[in-house]
Structure of Immunity MXAN-0049 protein domain-containing protein:
Amino acid sequence: MSYSYYTFGHAHDPRAVEIVDLPDRVEEYFYLSDGILCASYLPPTTELSLYENAGDMFTDFIDNPDKVLYVSQRVQDVLKERGLVGAAVELLPFVLLDKRGRRVRESYAIANPLVCVSCLDFERSKYRRTASDPNELAEVKLLYVREDSIPDDAQLFRLAELTDMVVLRSDLLEAFQKAGLTGLAVHPAGKTIPG
């Protein structure tokens, strides 16, 4: 079966809530982009707050500048139904506080993809290397993947060449859309990534 691949993006909906205080609340937050288990760095008592200057509309995927997947219980349920929670995705529950500092009733978690797949098509993709290490990528502006390098069961994974880039497969995207999940913004592989 042939699939399409997508990367996560920013929803840019001024009506929606956002979370921006992860770096202030979790000292080792940068591990969340490495594809490693992070429960020891982010206990379920961790409190994250809604950004005061954002909107008030709750979405299933909460936008943020840290490239983290903040997901509602409905997203968690889809991930569980598709057999992704455990070996492929770590769910990290946290306490979400509203703009007044009160606990939000809805249960949110960070979905931390653990699978890293080396599949970047270096010949067709557009990317920039870091100045400090020419073997390390700083960003990918146009993503092409080598589909023959992607395992059959990889529905949600990190690009091994740039682990803060999360890739999802078209059948998982369809499951999210079928469930009516909100706040999801994706960019198809083969198209320039805005920003």
Remarks:
- The first helix runs from residue 22 to 25.
- The mean pLDDT is 96.
- The chain has one domain: 5-188.
- The CA atoms of residues 79 and 85 lie 6 Å apart.
